[in-house]
C-alpha cells in the first residue's frame, strides 16, 4: 500500500465540492454542488486515517467498505474503488447524494472526533460511481442461470429496485409492479432534482430493464390485480411499497384551498422537470410563484418543500417547526442550504388554525417550548401560553411525515398481518409476512426511514427470498 497517499488529515484540510452561489442555484433544479475533479477527490480520500475500527462502516446501514475504497481512490485506482463500492450497494452514487452523511458515516468519522473535520465520504462516493458511468465501467446486469421461477415485486422504489437487481442476478424472472408511470418511487417523484437529478435515477432503472426485469408501470394492486392474483402468477412476492399516507394536522381551517400535502407538491414539481403537463401547476394550485409560502414540519421532506418553493419564485418562504434547531429530525446541512437560499425558520412554533374563507390567507401559530423528555428521550414540545403569532400565507404545505397506507384493504388481502402502526408484520429472520411466500421490506416494514435503509432491506430480503425459493424448488423436485 502506498502509505504516503493516506493519513493526510493533519496537513490537508477538509474540502467539500464547491456549492454554486445561492442566488444562482435558486433559479434552477440542478444539483447545487459541483463535482470533484480527480486531484481533489484523491486528495480528500487521502485524508482517511485508515483507523483500526472504522466507525464509518459500522454506522453505514450497508456496511460499505469505506476506508478501503477511500484508500484506492487516494492511490488513483478508481476502477477498483468503484468495484468495491458497488459490491455492497446497488446505488452508491444515489446514496452519495442523498444520505445524511452528517448523521451516519461522516458524523462518526474518527478524525471528526479529533477536530480535523470528517473525510468527505459522500462526495467521494458520488465521484467514484459517476466516474464509473462516464468511463463505461458500470457493466450490464449479470443475470444468473435461469431457475424457472418468477418473482413479483410491488413497488419500484429503492427497496424494490435493489431487490430486483439481486434477484435477477440469481437467475429469477422478475416483474416489478408500480402505480406510477415511472419507476423509482420516492427517488423519482419525492426528492427534488437539486438533491438528486433524475437522469441519475433513470440510468439505474434503464440498466435493470436492459437486464430483463419487466416493469409494469401504472399498475395499482387491488385495482389491476388483487394480491392473490399476483401470488398465483409468481412463485414469490415482495411488498416494497413504502409509506405514503400523510400525517394529518387537526386544526380549524385545514381544509381550505391552498393547504396542500407535501408529496402532492413535490410530485407536481418533479413531473414538471420531466416535461409533463401538470394541471395543478398550470392552474397555480401547486405553484409557489409569487406566494407567501409556509411549510409545516422539520424533516427532510419539509426541507425539500421550502427549497422547491424558493425555486418556483415564492415571495417568501417560512418553515414552522415545533422543536428547536438542535432537535429537528432533518439534516443540518439541508437547513443550512435552505437558509442560504433565503428560507426563514421559525423554531418552536406550530399551527393552531388556518385563516381565510375558502382560500387560506394565513396561519395562526402557537409558540412552543420544550418540556420533559418523552419515551424516546427527546424533550416533548408543549404550547407556551405566553406566545402566539400570525403568519401570512397563500400556500401552506403540510410536511409532517408519512404513515403506512391500509394495504390489507387496498390489496383486497384482509389476512395480510399489520402492526399497530399499520406497517406490515414480518418474521424477523425470514422477512416473510403472514402470507406464505409473500415477503416485505423497506419503509412498509420499518416505517418512514432513509433511502439507504431501504436499499439495505432490498439486499437482505433478496437473500431470504432466494433461500426460500431454492427450498421450494427442491420440494417440487422431490414431489415429482
TrEMBL record:
The keyword Iron-sulfur applies. GO terms for molecular function: 4 iron, 4 sulfur cluster binding; metal ion binding; oxidoreductase activity. Keywords: 4Fe-4S, Iron, Iron-sulfur, Metal-binding, Oxidoreductase. Residues 25-136 form the Dihydroprymidine dehydrogenase domain. The keyword Heme does not apply. Residues 151-458 form the FAD/NAD(P)-binding domain. InterPro entries: DPD_II (IPR028261), FAD/NAD-bd_sf (IPR036188), FAD/NAD-binding_dom (IPR023753), GltD-like (IPR006006), Helical_ferredxn (IPR009051). This is Glutamate synthase (NADPH/NADH) small chain. It comes from Sphingomonas guangdongensis.
Amino acid at each position: 500500500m502506498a502509505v504516503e497517499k493516506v493519513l493526510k488529515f493533519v496537513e490537508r484540510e477538509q474540502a467539500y465540492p464547491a456549492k454554486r452561489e445561492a442566488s444562482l442555484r435558486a433559479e434552477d433544479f440542478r444539483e447545487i454542488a459541483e463535482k470533484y475533479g480527480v486531484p481533489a477527490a484523491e486528495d480528500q480520500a487521502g485524508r482517511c486515517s485508515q483507523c483500526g475500527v472504522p466507525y464509518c462502516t459500522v454506522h453505514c446501514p450497508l456496511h460499505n467498505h469505506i476506508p478501503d475504497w477511500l484508500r484506492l481512490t487516494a492511490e488513483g485506482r478508481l476502477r477498483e474503488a468503484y468495484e468495491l463500492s458497488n459490491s455492497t450497494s446497488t446505488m452508491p452514487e444515489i446514496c452519495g447524494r442523498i444520505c445524511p452523511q452528517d448523521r451516519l458515516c461522516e458524523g462518526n468519522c474518527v478524525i471528526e472526533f479529533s477536530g480535523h473535520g470528517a473525510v468527505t465520504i459522500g462526495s467521494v462516493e458520488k465521484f467514484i460511481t459517476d466516474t464509473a458511468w462516464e468511463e463505461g465501467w458500470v457493466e450490464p446486469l449479470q443475470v444468473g442461470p435461469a431457475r424457472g421461477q418468477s418473482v413479483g415485486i410491488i413497488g419500484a422504489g429503492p427497496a424494490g429496485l435493489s431487490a430486483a437487481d439481486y434477484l435477477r442476478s440469481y437467475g429469477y424472472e422478475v416483474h416489478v409492479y408500480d402505480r406510477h408511470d415511472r419507476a423509482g418511487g420516492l427517488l423519482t417523484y419525492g426528492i427534488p432534482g437539486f438533491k438528486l437529478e433524475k437522469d441519475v435515477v433513470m440510468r439505474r432503472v434503464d440498466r435493470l430493464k436492459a437486464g430483463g426485469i419487466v416493469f409494469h408501470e401504472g399498475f395499482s394492486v387491488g385495482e389491476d390485480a388483487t394480491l392473490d392474483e399476483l401470488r398465483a402468477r409468481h412463485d414469490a412476492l415482495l411488498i416494497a411499497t413504502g409509506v405514503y399516507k400523510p400525517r394529518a394536522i387537526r386544526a380549524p381551517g385545514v381544509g381550505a384551498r391552498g393547504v396542500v400535502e407535501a408529496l402532492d407538491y413535490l410530485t407536481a414539481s418533479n413531473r414538471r422537470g420531466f416535461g409533463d403537463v401538470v394541471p395543478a401547476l398550470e392552474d397555480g394550485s401547486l405553484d409557489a410563484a409569487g406566494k407567501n409560502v409556509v411549510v409545516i414540519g422539520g424533516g427532510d421532506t419539509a426541507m425539500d418543500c421550502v427549497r422547491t418553493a424558493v425555486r418556483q419564485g415564492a415571495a417568501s418562504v417560512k418553515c414552522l417547526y415545533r422543536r428547536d434547531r438542535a432537535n429537528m429530525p432533518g439534516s443540518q446541512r439541508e437547513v443550512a442550504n435552505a437558509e442560504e437560499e433565503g428560507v426563514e425558520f421559525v423554531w418552536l412554533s406550530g399551527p393552531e388554525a388556518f385563516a381565510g374563507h375558502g382560500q387560506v390567507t394565513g396561519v395562526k401559530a402557537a409558540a412552543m417550548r420544550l418540556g420533559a423528555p418523552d419515551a424516546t428521550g427527546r424533550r416533548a414540545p408543549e404550547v407556551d401560553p405566553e406566545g402566539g403569532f400570525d403568519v401570512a400565507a397563500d400556500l401552506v404545505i403540510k410536511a409532517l411525515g408519512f404513515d403506512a397506507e391500509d394495504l390489507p384493504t387496498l390489496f383486497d388481502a384482509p389476512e395480510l398481518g399489520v402492526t399497530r402502526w399499520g406497517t406490515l408484520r414480518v418474521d424477523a429472520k425470514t422477512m416473510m409476512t403472514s402470507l406464505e411466500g409473500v415477503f416485505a421490506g423497506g419503509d412498509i416494514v420499518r416505517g418512514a426511514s432513509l433511502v439507504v435503509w431501504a436499499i439495505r432491506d432490498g439486499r437482505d430480503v433478496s437473500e431470504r427470498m432466494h433461500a426460500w425459493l431454492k427450498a421450494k424448488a427442491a420440494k417440487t423436485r422431490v414431489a415429482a
